[in-house]
Specification:
heterodimer; A: about 150 residues; alpha/beta; Rossmann fold; four-stranded parallel sheet; 4 helices; globular; B: about 300 residues; 2 domains; six-stranded mixed sheet; two-stranded antiparallel sheet
Chain lengths: ~150, ~300
């Protein structure tokens, strides 16, 4: 993953956002945004999961540790989960996780959760705009990151 | 000697279980190997029960031993039956046992809880003085509810769960909070004592020991150690009974309670759940409600 660090004073800081998108709704919504040629910031790295409930808090924390400036998890709207209740169980988990990460000192704008359905291409694009803007405002992170001895991948 | 009447009754109750053939093992405390300490002890017959003690050093959470004792052998012999285990339980031990029962790690009918009237345990302050352990000062449940046997005696009064320390920490700016967290965690030597002491950490292969994928290195790099504690603590979400077994086990004196308390405070505030005290049938994160709060959800179309 590309490390987002300032290399020249003239370069603007571009955050890296890792997005966990559920296969049936949010990923499809993102795909719809793509085929509809909607323009949205290119800072997002998508990881497709079968359901938002599949997202282990471990993955969110690892993403932050490995260099992501922000993490987004998006699933089906409550009541519309392809697996009936995956997103409902996830809702409780994410509420506690967000509170816990904020408590430890990670700004709440860095880890965000949303619901985007398969038909909401526009909403997905708006969501990415919003998350990238939020994270950009916070600036590069100072949270302990993995030290990479290898050279940066361009 | 403090609490000697309760100690007598406790020993008698334990011996009776063996006499009646109701238990195979009784888990309690005996005199420690160092002065002013007590350590867990497994009595397997009436004679062993003489070694039991009940004093202010009985701090360990005995429920931590139960998942291993109830683990079914890989190749069970013909007619294998799970053991019948009695536990001499403080309030926190009892809360943990009830939590384990909820998570199907312990067979309810195979456990006998002997509720002790806990007056709070002591720990050593930074100056080496004995003082009431923080977990005991803030304990909301000194005596197990719904126990099979109750040893009579005066227990300490339950405290009110106000989580003042959590609120104070939350008032600090983000950068300062992270600095404090990092400072505490940087003391960690990855001995895993916190994990071994916690009754809720019963996974056969801990995520931290997993290989393929190897989420974390076992070495003591700060980045991996921070991730280890963030995830291990979050695994207690909705399950932590605030017994401070992790804090007591830590050889480096890390103030884990400052962080784990947030999870207990949230479980209570968001879902009305206090494991072992509230009457939920399943842990709060195993289930859901249609009315769960969406306040934390990002709505991009909201102005």
């Amino acid at each position: 993953m590309r490390r987002s660090t300032l290399t020249k004073p003239s370069q603007t800081y571009e955050p890296t956002i890792v997005a966990f998108l559920c296969n049936w709704c949010s990923y499809a919504g993102a795909d719809l945004a793509g085929v509809s040629r909607m323009q949205y910031p290119a800072n997002v790295r998508v990881i497709r999961v079968p359901c938002s409930g599949r997202v282990d808090p471990l993955y969110i924390i690892k993403a932050l540790q490995e260099g992501a400036d922000g993490v987004l998890v998006s699933g089906c709207h409550p009541g519309d989960c392809h697996y009936i209740s995956g997103n409902l169980v996830a809702r409780r988990k994410f509420a506690m996780l967000k509170n816990f990460l904020t408590y430890l000192g990670i700004e709440p704008e860095r880890v965000q959760f949303s619901w985007v359905s398969a038909s909401e291409g526009g909403r997905f694009a708006a969501l990415i705009e919003r998350v990238v803007a939020d994270v950009k405002k916070l600036g590069p992170r100072t949270i302990a990151m993995k030290k990479r001895a290898a050279m940066q991948i361009a | 000697m403090m609490m000697s009447d309760a100690e007598k009754k406790m020993k008698a109750a334990a011996k009776k279980l063996f006499a009646e053939g109701t238990a195979d093992v009784v888990v309690g405390f005996r005199e420690g190997s160092r002065p002013n300490s007590s350590r867990p002890y497994f009595a397997r017959n009436e004679a062993d029960c003489e070694k039991f003690v009940w004093d202010k050093y009985c701090r360990a959470n005995l429920a931590a031993f139960l998942p291993a004792l109830f683990e079914k052998p890989a190749r069970p012999k013909e007619g294998y039956k799970p053991p019948r285990i009695a536990v001499i339980a403080k309030g926190c031990d009892g809360r943990s046992i009830l939590g384990l029962v909820k998570e199907h790690q312990v067979a309810c009918e195979n456990v006998v809880i002997i509720a002790m009237p806990c007056e709070g345990m002591v720990s050593l302050s930074s100056t080496g003085k004995e003082e009431t352990a923080r977990a005991c000062a803030e304990c909301v449940c000194p005596v197990v509810q719904g126990a099979d046997l109750v040893v009579p005696g005066t227990a300490k009064k339950p405290a009110k769960a106000d989580y003042a320390r959590v609120k104070k920490f939350e008032a600090k700016p983000f950068a300062e909070r992270w600095k404090i967290f990092e400072r505490e965690i940087s003391k960690c030597i990855r001995c895993n004592a916190c994990r071994e002491a916690c009754p809720n950490c019963y996974c056969k292969v801990c995520f931290a020991d997993q290989r393929r994928p190897a989420w974390l290195s076992p070495a003591n790099g700060l980045s991996d150690t921070i991730a280890y504690h963030m995830v291990r603590m979050f695994h207690q979400a909705g399950r932590c009974v605030e017994c401070d077994a992790c804090v007591n086990a830590c050889p480096m004196g890390i103030d884990l309670r400052l962080f784990t308390q947030k999870l207990a405070a949230d479980a209570l505030a968001l879902f009305g759940s206090a494991p072992g005290v509230s009457d939920d049938k399943v842990p709060p994160l195993y289930t859901f409600s249609q009315d769960d709060s969406e306040a934390f959800i990002t709505d991009p179309e909201e102005k």
